[in-house]
């Protein structure tokens, strides 16, 4: 034991001594306190007593940990975590900001557990370590603001356990972003401060590293917030502190670089460039993913302003969890002593300090913006400032108020620790006297609360329990009693911390206590204030740490029967890939599919990718079996209390208290082959088509291609689909220059006109009209007529058709029951387009037409019936190949996260589709030659296959090789070399400067010795 103790603590002791020699022991002891305090606060995470053992829950457990496990497995096996095949039908992994693949603390954790599974305790300790990093960076920043060590420690403690950290530490991707902000400000300040090039370079490099970690940490929204805050701090230093206008009046180009006004922006830009280069491997894929994200601006201000900080939530600044108003997004507790010290910094000192003004402004602006739609300011920013339309949770902006409050608390503590002038003491004592009324009100409320507690005390309870429950809510048989107990407890704690804070002010103002006593009291009381509530959120008791993998949303771990849960997991984890299991009922946390290496499809409406969102918004109108066919789902996992099979023909395989596993009656195919297709660049028409033929979703899939016209591709590789006869418009002797599809699926369904794969009509009930130029194929007019509600709209339909130029191509579709109120004038209009059916006054019928203005009646292409109708001009009209001669078989020979290989036997040319999500970076190779990757049914990977040679299979490989990762990795490696070079050069210059300084000192000493007068020889020996 002694050897282990020496092995651990001797290096720490030696390192502390070396640092103390430079910074002094007070700074070292303060840093050690900030480093180890979080581990003391969260002692229950590593308690040896199983009864006391607690774990972090929430998103950290069900989201961050499984993702971290998957990334860890891939990295430690020598692979780059490119793709997550365990969610939905595949999702980008390295591009997902929350995965934080190259975030340095995560990489350190991977290194420490190399060739070992990553335990949950390790991630918990890493999260706690982030509290330490945050406190140390704020401590360094405050000292850089020339605050005394003790004042910097107080401000760092106020920051270390602020409400945002305590409320969001389980959301690791957010926590990992925001902790670096004080470090960025600290390093930038140091780089701006020094005039010597090598010192500027070192701090500039560190600033770039800290910024890169802020970016690599995860959450794009908070990265945006942090970038705005750092930019505001830069403007403050550059414009106001240095008084730019005065410099411009006396501009001297000879000393331009020596002046901070020029040096600050240059060094800042270089630091940002270094950060951008270092983080390129993460940011380029992330930006590509964001470009495919459904943005707030596209869905309106209601989404951009969701979860604002409500005015009532501001009371959480004083009393955390007041009346249960503080959910994760509204935990803003800053500490009672913190707020008191902020008031001291505002009111007591005589001198004006620019930093106090800046951070006071930060507090005010952050509070206003965090309130979102409760103020007009956020609406203005949303409308006119780029980037604010992407913000979705405005309450998170309050984090920067926490920064401002911590800095101001440091300035308030500085006032407490220095000598005060008489007027400053007077103002401090005035603050003390001003609280007398507050305490009187608090005392009156507490008396009323305890009278109410006695009045509503539960019947049958012992009188002694009243006193036991004053500081607890263990007796909660009455809702009113529980409410009053909770309220009184919180008010007592607030009163205690306020009384302690005021007492410290009084002792300081009257100088009735030794300065060291004041110093120690402020530090201890701040630590007590900020840590009292920190460990009450996001933790849960667990009897056995091994059971954390069986956590489910909102269900205490102890309630799960682990053995039966394992039975379900063991079954689905042994299924061969790529068989997917539907988890729509949420029996398993979605992300845990990564931990168990199980292909899970949730069917949830995930708003992350545009293509996915467009498709899934349409999917609710598709039958459940069709959805499952598309996603290659063989098994369905339902809740244990669900007695009915999820679909006809489903067979129960396994059932226990945790859930049921059903095998589908008709097992879908992973690979699909079609000889007919319909071009589209939108996922929205898919639901209509699939409702037309729900039993054969791949009989005629929609296809599109990114980056070029699909028609040219098909004309080259599949000429049967682009014959001129396919563009004939019925019997009108006219042809269309573009692909046209018209759909009408009935009451409650979809109706629309699709031009070159793009819907061109509104999704409104009634009759839809599109006019197309017969030469260019351009849309001339798109109009909607509400014949679902108003008969007069038929007359307007007639008038609009009458104005169409002769020879124009016209498409018409009914949406919902759009034919019900058509009259005779509409019949005349339809006949003028080549229509032949009497469509007036029909109810429950569907209608589609493609005709030519002025054509003979009965010559247009049209369809009218009760069943859904669909007519096509162009590629979709093809009846390519005789399906009776079609033979198709496929075999999966390789299924990995970044490559899927199949052997395919097909007797004719057609479209091969696999049930895997498409995404930029996926490439396809047929028999070793790269082919164009197509998008099938809005979201899946497809490729045109030629007939397989007799006796030989087509080898088809889908490979994920995103250029953003390749380019990003190259940029990051180059930047890393540049950083190492700059650091080495700076260290060499600093070492040379130090050595030269020592050499010059020796020369001066030698010179002094040589020039010193020599002692004269005395005559004592002669005497």
Topology:
Layout: H1 2-23, H2 25-41, E1 54-56, H3 59-76, E2 83-84, E3 91-92, H4 104-112, H5 120-144, H6 149-160, H7 163-168, H8 172-178, H9 181-193, H10 197-216, H11 220-241, H12 244-249, H13 260-278, H14 280-291, H15 296-299, H16 301-304, H17 336-347, H18 354-370, H19 376-384, H20 398-417, H21 422-434, H22 436-455, H23 464-468, H24 479-510, H25 515-531, E4 539-541, H26 562-573, E5 580-582, H27 592-596, E6 600-601, H28 610-618, H29 624-630, E7 633-638, E8 651-656, E9 659-663, E10 671-674, E11 678-679, H30 686-692, E12 702-704, H31 710-717, E13 740-744, E14 751-755, E15 758-759, E16 766-772, E17 779-785, H32 792-802, E18 809-815, H33 824-831, E19 846-852, E20 861-865, E21 869-873, E22 888-896, E23 899-906, E24 910-917, E25 922-926, E26 929-931, E27 934-936, E28 940-945, E29 954-960, H34 963-1011
Parallel strand pairs: 5-6, 5-7, 11-12
Antiparallel strand pairs: 1-4, 2-3, 7-9, 8-9, 10-24, 12-27, 13-14, 13-21, 14-15, 16-17, 16-18, 18-19, 19-20, 22-23, 23-29, 24-28, 25-26, 25-29, 27-28
List keywords for this structure.
five-stranded mixed beta sheet; disordered C terminus; 1023 residues; 14% strand; 34 helices; alpha+beta; six-stranded mixed beta sheet
Radius of gyration, in angstroms, nearest whole number: 36 Å
The helix tally amounts to 34
Oligomer: single chain
The class by helix and strand makeup works out as alpha+beta
Helix content: 40-55%
Approximate strand percentage: 5-15%
Distance between the termini: 72 Å
Strand order of the largest sheet: 10-24-28-27-12-11
Mean pLDDT: 82
Topology, number of strands: 29
